[in-house]
Amino acid sequence: MSTIRFFCIEETMNRKPVNFTPNAGRVSDYFGSHVFNDKSMRAYMTKEAYRSVRSAIDLGAKIDREVADQVAAGMKAWAVSKGATHYTHWFQPLTGGTAEKHDSFFEPTEDGDAIEKFSGGMLVQQEPDASSFPNGGIRNTFEARGYTAWDPTSPAFVIGTTLCIPTIFVSYTGEALDFKTPLLRALQSVDQAATDVAQYFDKNVKKVNATLGWEQEYFLVDSAFFNGRPDMALAGRALLGHGPAKGQQLDDHYFGSIPERVIQFMQEIEFEALRLGIPIKTRHNEVAPSQYEFAPIFEEANVAVDHNSLFMDLMEKVARRHNFRVLLHEKPFAGVNGSGKHNNWSLATDTGVNLLQPGKTPKSNLQFLTFFINTIKAVHDHADMLRATIASAGNDHRLGANEAPPAIISVFIGEQLSAVLDELERLESGKLSPQAKTDLKLNVVGKIPEILLDNTDRNRTSPFAFTGNKFEFRAVGSQANCAQPMTVLNAIMADQLRKFKSDVDALIKNGMKKDDAIFNVLKDYIKASKKIRFEGDGYGDAWKEEAAKRGLNNVPDTPRALDFMVTEEAIRIFEENGVLNRVEVEARHEILLEEYQKRIQIESRVLGDIAGNHVIPTAIRYQSTLIESVQRLKDLFDEKTYKSMAQAQLDMISEISKHVTVIISEKKAMIEARKKANALTDTREMAIAYCDTVKPIMETIRYHADKLELLVDDEMWPLPKFRELLFTR
Ligand code: ADP
Ligand code: MG
């Protein structure tokens, strides 16, 4: 029992819960206490500065330099009162994480003293040395400067002793180098387009916000086990390991009682999150053993995206204090469910109306139907772009693996709303007759509110489902930045709503009444977008066949799915909605391909090391003990007795040899495949080579290593096993 594995087991079994009690009163006493929110802005800023920031937040107005100085002074005073000594621009580069570079407020004065200084200039703009962030070839290394610029629509916050200021990150020449910049542009575009359409129904609407409520799934493993597995530590997931005899088949983990160590972790992270204004509301066990979920109340999409990024960061930090490591990877363990991040999305007006909430009157229901049907049409026309936004090496393991929605994008709306759309589809074209209007009122539009609430059932197999008053994009990966899917969803929605407006206006211009025109256009859209609607089992093979017949794409791997973000139509959407220009889109495409290729490369190297340094030596050591035992039997017994006694062991010896031989030769083949792939100069071709030639070899190696895990003496096996990773708490 000399292996690191037994040390890990001992460590873990001796763990006690790390108690955490907030001791800060009720949640309402400390919610948002570490955020420079409306309340603290009023308290710490001049009236002029406050008004200026408010109109920047509400109306997108610019803040001039002098006012920025006042804002900075107020922000600094508030931050210092919370114990801050440093400040940083906080941004989300295309690496996927968050970035920060702390500077002290402290500045020496000429007379040898020091003051705390924070000017408007420091608030508004910084120039981090950005040469080592991914840029997809936009910047030459000699012109490596990038700017971060303050985003006043997402409030600053204090973590520990640092004031964090949410910013965008752009190159010297103005191209976006982060996730937030295109998101803000898409949100602005959908605001304008949706406001114009909402004004058909209510002239008072001046602004429409996209809303996002994310649900974050994750695994927790003990930090000893995490460190005991090189694949966990380096690739964030188990690259090999036999499934435990008991997995999730009894469904006994989902919504089960939460283990004490985990509850303490959850309480601490909730406390931290709530102080930072992240409105965490829900926590529970998920389907797989050691899998859990957090969900907040939804917020304006930009703030929600920042909050999710911040939350993922917090999770990692707090987990360590409880001797856990958080696994945000989409598929840490083969054989049990992976993790996703549902993106609940809707549009809300500044008059307080959720545009995807069926209303109480026929008029508000026509508004609901308008936004509802336009969403379906947008997803129909640009399903492939949505597919591209959720593509990643990790998510490839989930999509289409019969546990997450498939790689085929479709929309689920439920039986009742399908019936409503079928009814609308049967309308005669042109001006509506009085009879048709009465019918509509009574049987279609008037019926929506009563039927809806209980009946938008949860078809968990759909990647894009309507759930009563919002759409839920379920195919997003657990470690993804929500900004990517949110940028594209809002951009295609903006594009669609603009088209709708021009279609309706054209009919009105030809003398049709507004309501009639809206019905006519909606009817056409229902027809045109029918093939994207699917109410059945998205996991089944029947759907794959049916989808192919309908002409829906099913691209299971990342390098090829990413093609969909650089089609001429995708670039048109990005450009016309002011989200990204061609250069930016192409740079992003390049970055994502490169990231994919690097991740597989790392996984392949780690697997090669583990197979060579852990698995094979252990297998051979165990095989030697068998050989020794067989040898002894031979010495002790006559030929016939020996044969009958030793046969089973002889079989095991040759079985071990068989697996070892395959692993050794496949390991060589994998290195050759990598060499070949690395010699390619085109990034896309290289990513595809990794996908098509390296990944399959990894699977073969894993298969044989997992067989050996079952053959070899448990006491000799060096890597923590799945049953230990998943069931020790
Ligand atoms: P579940 O999908 O787990 O059954 P719910 O449907 O109650 O749970 O809500 C899931 C998430 O949807 C929550 O984060 C919630 O805040 C969010 N949500 C609810 N309404 C909206 C909305 N109008 N816009 C965006 N997200 C919303
Ligand atoms: Mg949900």
UniProtKB/TrEMBL annotation:
Pfam families: Gln-synt_C (PF00120), Gln-synt_C-ter (PF18318), GSIII_N (PF12437)
Any Gene Ontology biological process: glutamine biosynthetic process
Highest rank taxon of the organism: Bacteria
Annotated GS beta-grasp domain residues: 85-174
Residue ranges occupied by any GS catalytic domain in the UniProt entry: 179-615
Database matches in SMART domains: Gln-synt_C (SM01230)
MF terms (GO), sorted A to Z: glutamine synthetase activity
Family according to the record: Belongs to the glutamine synthetase family.
Name of protein: Glutamine synthetase type III
Source organism of the structure: Phaeocystidibacter marisrubri
Lineage: Bacteria, Pseudomonadati, Bacteroidota, Flavobacteriia, Flavobacteriales
